[in-house]
Task: inverse folding
């Protein structure tokens, strides 16, 4: 039986940056994200005969299947091993995956891909875990952000501050607040330092402890802003969180520099938009590309400003989404 799942990327308002246990993706602090709608990973899974071996393939935009890079295959097989232990089975799988947005460029491609893999494998084994268990299964990949991509709308992970191993929880569904996210892509290359390595270095930064002191207040404020649909309150916190993540990266030992000239160009454009009365706020994950959050009424003004910037390669127009879905269009 073939199962195909599309799972979305997400953009963190409160960042996951730094881990108590990197191997298990147990975070130092809770994070809050908005699940996206259009930026998705599509993954097809098929159970193979018991004597077989896992096959991991990448699908091109044209539908051609290619052998995946060795490091990618190793990561997928590690997650498959975790899922097999959960299900108490020893069956191999054929897996093919494709993203409709740049991979490894700081737009949560791992979160989308591993969330899709966890859901598809569970379905292929005819298991029916609830959203909380799917969150835990996605986290087993080692991508903590994947724990949030199994749910739609606005998501907090972990649910329990006292238990970093607890699953994600929904704060509000997508239709509670129809925010837009315009992603200004300024670099499509794989980032030179992975998020995993960034998590490892985070605690070496003198900025790390300072941010931890502020997080309780920020988490409460973001939760309230989402409940009240208050972008004027949410926006400054979202921007400060992005800046703090990159301050920590830049002051880690050794330092990590994700920004590119185009990154600064976009940040300045967002500030200019706000000066003209447009309600737009930037955020970034671990990469050079910039997410600009705004309401539907300001989407066209933001899109026009960003698309006209010389260093913006492409503009991904996204919005809050409802989460993963199963589809019948398989990759093989």
Result:
């Amino acid at each position: 039986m073939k199962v195909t799942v599309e799972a979305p990327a997400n953009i963190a308002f409160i960042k996951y940056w730094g881990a108590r246990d990197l191997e298990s993706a147990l975070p130092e602090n809770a994070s809050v994200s908005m699940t996206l709608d259009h930026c998705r990973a599509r993954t097809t899974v098929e159970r193979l005969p018991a004597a077989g071996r896992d096959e991991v393939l990448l699908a091109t935009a044209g539908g051609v299947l290619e052998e995946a890079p060795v490091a990618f295959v190793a990561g997928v097989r590690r997650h498959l091993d975790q899922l097999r232990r959960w299900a108490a089975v020893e069956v191999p799988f054929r897996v093919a995956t494709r993203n409709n947005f740049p991979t490894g460029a700081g737009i949560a491609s791992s979160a989308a891909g591993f969330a899709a893999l966890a859901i598809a494998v569970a379905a292929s084994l005819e298991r029916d875990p609830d959203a909380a268990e799917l969150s835990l299964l996605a986290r087993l990949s080692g991508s903590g952000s994947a724990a949030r991509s199994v749910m739609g709308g606005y998501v907090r992970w972990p649910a329990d501050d006292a238990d970093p191993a607890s699953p994600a929880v929904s704060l509000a569904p997508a239709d509670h607040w129809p925010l837009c996210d315009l992603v200004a892509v300024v670099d499509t290359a794989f980032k030179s330092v992975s998020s995993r390595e960034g998590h490892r270095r985070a605690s070496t930064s003198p900025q790390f402890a300072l941010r931890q002191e502020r997080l309780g207040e920020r988490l409460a404020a973001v939760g309230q802003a989402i409940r009240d649909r208050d972008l004027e309150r949410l926006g400054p916190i979202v921007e400060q969180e992005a800046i703090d993540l990159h301050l920590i990266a830049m002051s880690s030992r050794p330092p990590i520099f994700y920004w590119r000239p185009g990154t600064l160009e976009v940040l300045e454009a967002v500030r200019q938009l706000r000066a003209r009365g447009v309600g737009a706020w930037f955020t970034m994950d671990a990469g050079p590309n910039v997410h600009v959050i705004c309401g539907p009424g300001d989407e066209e003004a933001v899109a026009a400003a960003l698309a006209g910037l010389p260093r913006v390669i492409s503009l991904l127009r996204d919005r809050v989404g409802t989460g993963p879905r199963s589809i019948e269009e398989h990759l093989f």
About this structure: Residues 9 and 112 are 5 Å apart (CA to CA). The mean pLDDT is 97. The domain at 2-174 is CATH 3.30.230.10 (Ribosomal Protein S5; domain 2).
